[in-house]
Amino acid sequence: MVSVLKRSLAIITLLIIGYWIAQAFAGVPFGQDKMLVGQYYLNNVKAQTGAVNAVTAVVVNYRGFDTLGEVTVLFIASTGVGALLWKRKKERTARTEGSIVLTTGTRYLFPFVLIFGAYIFIHGHLTPGGGFPGGATIATGFLLLYMAFIVYEIPHKGFEVAEGLVGMGYVIVGLIGLMIGGYFLFDWIWQTWQLGTNNIGRLLSGGFIPVIYTIIGLKVGTELSGIIDNMIKEEVRE
Amino acid sequence: MIHISVYYFGAISLILIGLYAVLVKKNLLKMLIGLSIMETGVNLLLISVGYISGRSAPILSEGVGPNQAVDPIPQALVLTAIVIGVATTAMALSVAIILYEKYGTLNVEEIRRLRG
Amino acid sequence: MNGQYAALIIALPLVSAFFVPVIKAISKKAVMPFLLLVTLAQVGIAGWVFNEVYTSDKPIIVMAGGWRPPVGINLYIGHFAALFVLIIAVISFFMAYFSIKAVKVEPLDKYAMLFLLLMLGATGMIATGDIFNLFVFMEITAITAYALTAYNKTGEAAEASMKYMILGGIGSSFFLIGIALIYGATGTLNMAQIAQLAGNINPTVAQVGLALLIFGLAVEAELFPLNAWAPDAYQAAPHPITVMFSAFVVKAGLYAAARLLYLMQAVSTWHSVLRLLVIMAVLTVVVAEFSALRQRDVKRMIAYSSISQVGMIAFALALGSQAGVDAGVFHMVNHAIVKALLFLGVGYVGIKLGGTTLEDFEGLGRRMPLTAFAITVGSLSAVGIPLFNIFWSKVRIMLAGVSAGYTWGVALILGASVVEAVYYLRLIHRIWFAGGGERLSESFALGAIMLFLVALILVIGFYPNYAWSLAQKAGADIFDVTRYVSNVPLMGVGA
Amino acid sequence: MNCISCIEYIIVAIMIISAILAVEWKDLLAAAVGMAAVSLFASILFFMLQAPDVAMTEAAIGAALSGAVFIFAIKRTRRFETEEEEKPGWWMRW
Fold first, then answer.
1. Which of A20, C126, C175, C264 makes the best surface tag, with the fewest CB within 10 Å?
2. Angle value at C-alpha C490, between C488 and C493, nearest 5 degrees
3. What span, in angstroms and rounded, lies between the C-alpha atoms of C390 and C372?
4. Pick from A129, A130, A143: which is nearest to D68 by CB?
């Protein structure tokens, strides 16, 4: 009885909050052109960044600083999960091997999953996708390995160092921009060297976007795999 | 009454359902599922703000000019927000695992009682 | 050197944090000295930035990617940001040293990474000039804070961290809804351009958007309904991290809230949001002081005291007057020094004696005289005794509050301060006049850090004018939005 | 009403229903799957709102990976929710 009362109280509060938010959103009409900076991006994206996909250009180039932060957040999550689930000795406790379909499928699919992930992040400036889905696809490949085989483990040391080095790579690309162009995260490949200017719409264009997206893809892939690894393994008492 | 689009409605409903789970449920994983649903709702809200009726995706290949695409900024923001969301979720789940290892329960009231 | 090199305040901690796994692969022992080295380098860069901003009297605008705002993201390192980036760097340097003594729980390499990223997140929150970038840095700060709160892996720590995460998750969702509203209404994310366009926004949208942004930040800024995580987290976190939380993480949240608040000055419904914030702040002060009185654990007691001081700062910042903002900034600086000293002393006692309950502090005056002296000075200052630094900022907050017409708020805060005096004097009494024990040896370097902070308290207490002039410049940086907008080289997209 | 908006309404409705189910189911494994379903429907909506990048990311990260992480966490804790009559809002209390 009391719980029903409390639930209805909570629901009423929530409806008030919902109404409050909804009446504000009535002032932001749906489906109308509200662009200000967005229009600038759309008008200049090809000339200024060489990317066809405006979202990618915004993510990596115009608002690259956000993306650096985002990569950092993922790095923190992987570090934090590692720190919190740290045990002196950890092992996998799965007892059953995956079914024959899963193991055989994984064995043949795994390289293709990796290639597909790499394809997604390398073509980020041309097609939808980019580093984050690409990296997630790679992590899915490792997830498949974990589910199919009971003894499989990622090479931790290598992955940790790779994570760090790839992240440093991102910052260093930014610092090279600071040295060449005078601005942190400056797109020196496109704006100073002007590589690929007559190649818009093909793979070798887009300035440092493919470089950064490769870095992001590798980093996301290793970090998500690391998180999965940490979540899946349990402590073993000696 | 106020008139809002179905997308806004769906997004705000998701936010409220998630918030309800956080407010009322006592199981930690349930609360985290609620937070996750809330984040999805917020992302949907942001994308709906950037949508412009009758325009296509902001990929300016053949046939799509600068005046025929939707706003790219909210999409870039949501891309960031999704990744941040999964990072928070992973962190939260590992803390939940520690709590379960220490107290043997996921019910917050029991955890409080056991802690004294 | 070019002003763009100020981007190093972000780039250096980041690249060093990414470098830690490599260091660990070479030698595990090198991780903590590396941390010390990086924070020292950060102090150097922050000192250079501070010097640059205060001698040229012009803010440094860092344009990431070479795009002029509002197209690109810019960092705005004005007087406030320069001052606080320096404070963050110095306190991080001290705490990096303290961590070597205080943190023994494995894995230390991950601790070092999270430490650097916490420093980075707070720096970024203070320096950024873009509202979504603020969100990203807020999340960096928050997620590192969650991880570090639970770092000791005890049940209490995990519970505190979980509380923090759930509140933080709600807060960040609200913050994003606020961003969606503001972006939908203005079409830009740059703070300066939002300030320019604020007058044209639909007042309802602006009011709800601003309220949601403030609510989102209130989790970080520890304002009343959303600060239940704070005492638990302060108590359960490793000692150096507690110092960092109290000294600058909460300040970053407060600053961001104040910045967003004053940016939207042109909105017609602005004053209602202001009043909401004042009420939240006064409630924070009163509730925290009375909760502090009940505590038997000194670390937790000081945590509540810290929350109440934060409420006082929020009160000052929400007054909507130049005097209030200046006083609030002055209080922020003083509070950072005093609480760093107190938590450092209490943490050191906790390491040496194995606990921080009130009983552990009996006879501290005989057992650890230097630490006891430092804690005493810190407590006297926190209470607001004249000739200590907090006295001057408290007086200025009260005066500003009265002149802004919030006499009831000032009266309540004064009443709460009496409560504060009671429990601090009880602590001092326990330290000097009860119990006794063997003399323990105290670390020379930590003693030096404590004496340095004590000296700062006394210097500001006796000669408040220099610090006050710094605070006035920093306060003007927050309050004077027209100057803020004119300092950002907007390229005139759409506006 | 044309057919495109029918689909919009239907998907939003299914999404809300799966969200409610995800919150109400006592079996946490089912709830995690419900949450992944919410993400999937949201990703269809993203696609309909002309945001293919976001749709891909949401499907890969929001649905697949965070669902997987949830399932691992459930495996390491317990699967069913125990419900008892108590005050909600634990995280609000001091």
1. A20
2. 160
3. 19
4. A143
Query: Is the pLDDT reported for residue B1 higher than 70?
Result: no
List the one residue out of C318, C199, D43, A188 whose CA is nearest residue B78. Answer: D43
In this complex, is the C-beta atom of D28 within 8 Å of any C-beta atom belonging to chain A?
A: no
Q: Quick check: D23 and B37 CB within 8 A?
A: yes
Res. B113: pLDDT tops 80: no
Contact D23, B37 (CB under 8 A): yes
Torsion of CA A67, A71, A72, A73, to 10 degrees: 100
Please answer yes or no on whether D54 and B86 come within 8 Å at the CB atom: no
Q: Domain locations in chain B?
A: 6-52+71-115
Would you call C136 and A178 a contact, using CB atoms and an 8 Å cutoff?
A: no
Which of D65, D77, D86 to mutate: most B Cβ within 10 Å? D77
- B39-43, C152-156, C306-310, C357-361: range with lowest mean pLDDT: C357-361
The one-letter amino acid at C433 = F
Integer Cα distance of D4 and A55 in angstroms: 25
Evaluate if residue A57 carries a pLDDT over 50: yes
State which amino acid sits at residue A33: D
Q: Does domain B6-52+71-115 have CATH number 1.10.287.3510?
A: yes
How many Cβ pairs within 8 Å bridge chains B and D?
A: 161
Tokens of residue A98, six digits: 């995956």
Going by C-alpha positions, the residue among C90, C113, C102, C145 that lies closest to residue C35 is C113
> C493, A40 in Cβ contact below 8 A?
yes
Residue C270: band (very low, low, confident or very high) from pLDDT cuts 50, 70, 90? confident
Query: Taking Cα atoms as reference points, which of C122, D27, C173 lies closest to residue B88?
Result: C173
List the single best residue of B19, B20, B43, B91 to mutate versus D (max D Cβ within 10 A). B43
- Which tokens sit at C426? 């009880």
Instruction: Give the pLDDT mean for D30-58.
Output: 89
CB contact under 8 A, D49 and B33: no
pLDDT digits (tens, 9 = 90+) for C209-266: 888 998 888 888 888 878 888 888 888 888 899 998 888 888 999 999 988 888 888 8
Structural tokens at position C96: 């990096």
DSSP string of C170-209?
HHHHHHHHHHHHHHHHHS--BHHHHHHHGGGS-HHHHHHH
pLDDT of C406 above 90? no
Q: Which amino acid is at A122?
A: I
C176 in contact with chain D, both atoms CB, cutoff 8 A: no
Q: Where are the domains of chain A?
A: 1-34, 48-235
- Residue A13 CA: distances (Å) to CA of C172, C217, C283, D8, D16: 20, 21, 21, 28, 19
